[in-house]
Amino acid sequence: MYEHPLSLWSDNKPLHGQNALVVGDAAGITDPLLAEGIRPSMFTGVKAAAAIANAIAGDSSALPEYSSIVHQAWGEEYVWAQRLSGLFFKLPGVAYKVGVKRPTAAQIMSQILCGQTRYTDITDKAIKTLKRSFLPGQG
Ligand SMILES: Cc1cc2nc3c(=O)[nH]c(=O)nc-3n(C[C@H](O)[C@H](O)[C@H](O)COP(=O)(O)OP(=O)(O)OC[C@H]3O[C@@H](n4cnc5c(N)ncnc54)[C@H](O)[C@@H]3O)c2cc1C
């Protein structure tokens, strides 16, 4: 058995240096709830390539803009994913029943993985559902 740590997103850090960009796992871009890392890594790779091309063409703000693009596209979403994961992984038994066994939950997670639904749209409701299941009368 080997352990393979996941490079989960924790907060928005600068992803650029003077002549460098970080992408994928090096940028800590893995979803803190679902641990999806491939799609966001590809996104950062594509955006980094475009930023490098713009920088070579003389755009001095291209590298800092890369950090902003990634923060807006993923960081803002991951704030919500992190809130949900904080509750989800604290109560694995309840979370499994409410969040994994429910067919609708699986469907929502699939939509997130396909980029069709955003955490922004579902987190409030999901947290209320989780809370209701272990604190009847709440939410
Ligand atoms: C156990 C596990 C399960 C996962 N399951 C999923 C999943 O189901 N779905 C999902 O979306 N994500 C999953 N992930 C996350 C996903 O694998 C990563 O987020 C993604 O592969 C990151 O891509 P990357 O290109 O940044 O890094 P990597 O895919 O790790 O690529 C980095 C490459 O650089 C090479 N390298 C390292 N150092 C050097 C060096 N000095 N010189 C030359 N080459 C070097 C490495 O050998 C590697 O090939 C999983 C991760 C783990 C650990």
Q: How would you characterize this protein structure?
A:
The chain is mainly alpha-helical and 139 residues long. The protein has one domain. Helix content is 59%, strand content 0%. The protein contains 5 helices and no strands. Helix 1 packs antiparallel against helix 2 and helix 3 packs across helix 5. The longest helix has 27 residues. It is elongated and about 60 Å long. Bound molecules: flavin-adenine dinucleotide (FAD). Flavin-adenine dinucleotide binds next to helix 1.
What's the gist of this structure?
By secondary structure, this protein is mainly α. The protein has one domain. The radius of gyration is 18 Å and the shape is elongated.
Number of helices: 5
How many domains? The number is: 1
Largest sheet: none
Structure class: mainly alpha
- Count the E strands: 0
Unique bound compounds: flavin-adenine dinucleotide
Please report which band the strand proportion falls in: under 5%, 5-15%, 15-25%, 25-35%, 35-45% or over 45%: under 5%
Low-confidence stretches: none
User: What radius of gyration results from the CA coordinates?
Assistant: 18 Å
Q: Give the CA-based shape.
A: elongated
Mean pLDDT: 90
Question: Secondary-structure element sequence?
Answer: HHHHH
Q: Report the oligomer.
A: single chain
The helix fraction, in percent, is 55-70%
Distance between the termini: 42 Å
